[in-house]
Design goal:
Layout (H helix, E strand, L loop, with lengths): L1 H17 L12 E2 L12 H12 L17 H14 L3 E5 L2 H11 L6 E5 L4 H9 L3 E5 L4 H13 L6 E6 L11 H10 L3 E5 L24 E6 L9 E5 L1 H10 L1 H4 L6 H16 L2 H21 L8 E7 L1 H13 L2 E2 L1 E3 L9 E6 L6 H17 L1
Parallel strand pairs: 1-10, 3-4, 3-5, 5-6, 6-7
Antiparallel strand pairs: 2-8, 7-8, 9-12, 11-12
Helix pairs in contact: 2-10, 3-10, 4-5, 11-13
GO molecular function: 8-amino-7-oxononanoate synthase activity; pyridoxal phosphate binding
Pfam family, one: Aminotran_1_2
Protein name: 8-amino-7-oxononanoate synthase
C-alpha cells in the first residue's frame, strides 16, 4: 500500500536519475568556490560580535509573530531605517528571504490589467511571482531591451491599458552578466513603467559602498529594488527598498508579508551590521575585484573561458553527466565547485558555476585552475 501511494513520486525521481538531473544534498567540503559569501562576511568577527551583543542585551532569537502582530521588533525597524538611508530610498521592508520577497513583490504590486515583462533568465522566484500574480506577463529574451519594448508595444496595440512593470536582475546568478540598466530605465521612463530590479548578486559587491548596480536610480518613484541579506551581506533575509507609498501598500496588501512570522531580530542585527561594514571596510570589495580579475585571466589563458566580468564565472559544458563528473573531480581534489543543470539553466547549458569570494586567495585560485585543466582533460 505504501509503495502504491508513493509510486508516482518514485517514478519522477527515477526519471530524473536517467537524465542525470537527480539532486541530492552534499555537505560543505573543500575550498569555497560555490558560495555567495562574496566578501567573506558570513563568518566575520564583526557580524558574530554584533549578534552576541544583541543576545546579551536580551534580543530574542525568534520574532514570535507577524510584523503586524507582536513580531515587529525594534531591530527590524532600525534595520529598515538604516537600509533606506544607505540605499537612498524612501523606505525599506525586511522579508524572511529573497525568494519570498521577489514572489511577494510580483504578486502584490502589479495589478489586474497591468503588464509584467520579465527577463527569461531572471530568478525562479520572479517567475513564480509572475505566474501567481494578477497581471498579464510576458517573457523577454535575456538582456534584450528591444524585446522588452516589443512586448509593451504589442500589448498596447492589443488594447492593454494598465501600467507596465519591467522585472530583471542587475547581475545574473548563473551567467554573471549585467543587465543593460541605463537602457531599461530609459525604456521605463518612455512608457511610464515601473521597474523591479533584483540586486541579489550585486548588493555588497558593486556600486558605491556596495549599494548595487541600480544605486544611481534608487529613490525614484517608479523603481523597487530587492537587496538580499544572505549573500554578500553574510546574514539572511532580504530588504525591499522603494517609494514609501509602495512599501505601505505591501504592508497592507502583501500576503507573504502580512501572514508570515517575521524574520529573526538577530538576523536584522546582523544585516544592519553588514551595511555598516560595507561603508567601513571598502577594502573587502577592492580585494574581491582583484581576485575576480586574477581568476578571469587564469581561466581565459588556461581554459579558454570568456570572462563574465563579475564574481560569478560560468563554465558551460552542456552535457549533464559530464558536468557532474567534472564537478565531482574538482571536489575530490578539494575544490567545492558545483554543477548546475536544467531546469536551473536552459537545456543544453549545464555548467560549472565558479563563485569567487574572499574565502580563497590567489594561490587557491591558481590551484583550482590547475585542477580544472586536469579534470577537463580526463572527464
Amino acid at each position: 500500500m505504501k509503495e502504491a501511494i508513493l509510486a508516482r513520486y518514485d517514478a519522477t525521481l527515477r526519471g530524473l536519475g536517467r537524465k542525470d538531473r537527480l539532486r541530492t544534498l552534499a555537505p560543505r567540503a573543500g575550498l569555497d568556490f560555490s558560495s555567495n559569501d562574496y566578501i567573506g562576511l558570513a563568518a566575520s568577527k564583526r557580524l558574530g560580535d554584533a549578534v552576541s551583543t544583541a543576545i546579551a542585551r536580551g534580543t530574542p532569537v525568534g520574532a514570535t509573530g507577524s510584523r503586524l502582530l507582536r513580531g515587529n521588533a525594534p531591530e527590524h525597524e532600525q534595520l529598515e531605517a538604516d537600509a533606506a538611508a544607505f540605499f537612498g530610498a524612501e523606505r525599506a521592508l525586511f522579508f524572511g528571504s529573497g525568494y519570498i520577497a521577489n514572489f511577494a513583490l510580483l504578486t502584490a504590486l502589479p495589478q489586474k490589467g497591468d503588464l509584467l515583462v520579465l527577463d527569461e533568465l531572471a530568478h525562479a522566484s520572479m517567475h513564480e511571482g509572475a505566474q501567481a500574480g494578477r497581471a498579464e506577463f510576458k517573457l523577454a529574451a535575456h538582456n534584450d531591451v528591444d524585446a522588452v519594448e516589443d512586448a509593451i508595444t504589442r500589448w498596447r496595440a492589443e488594447g492593454g491599458m494598465g501600467r507596465v512593470w519591467i522585472a530583471f536582475e542587475s547581475l545574473y546568478s548563473m551567467d554573471g552578466d549585467r543587465a543593460p540598466m541605463e537602457s531599461l530605465v530609459a525604456l521605463a521612463d518612455r512608457y511610464q513603467a515601473f521597474i523591479v530590479v533584483d540586486e541579489a548578486h550585486a548588493t555588497g559587491v558593486w556600486g558605491p559602498d556596495g549599494r548595487g548596480l541600480a544605486a544611481a536610480y534608487e529613490g525614484r518613484d517608479n523603481i523597487v529594488t530587492l537587496h538580499t541579506c544572505g549573500k554578500a551581506l553574510g546574514a539572511s533575509g532580504a530588504l525591499v527598498t522603494g517609494p514609501r507609498t509602495l512599501c505601505d501598500y505591501l504592508i497592507n496588501r502583501c500576503r507573504p508579508f502580512i501572514y508570515a512570522t517575521a524574520p529573526s531580530p538577530l538576523m536584522a542585527v546582523a544585516a544592519r551590521e553588514a551595511l555598516t561594514i560595507l561603508s567601513d571596510e571598502p577594502m573587502r570589495r577592492a580585494q574581491l575585484h582583484e581576485r575576480v580579475a586574477f581568476a578571469s585571466r587564469q581561466l581565459a589563458e588556461r581554459c579558454g573561458v570568456m570572462p563574465s566580468g563579475s564574481q560569478i564565472q560560468p563554465l558551460v559544458i552542456g552535457d549533464n553527466s559530464r558536468t557532474m563528473a567534472v564537478a565531482a573531480g574538482l571536489q575530490a581534489r578539494g575544490f567545492d565547485i558545483r554543477g548546475i543543470r536544467p531546469p536551473t539553466v536552459p537545456e543544453g547549458t549545464s555548467r560549472l558555476r565558479i563563485s569567487l569570494t574572499l574565502n580563497v586567495d590567489e594561490a587557491d585560485i591558481s590551484a583550482m585552475v590547475e585542477a580544472l585543466v586536469g579534470v577537463l582533460a580526463t572527464a
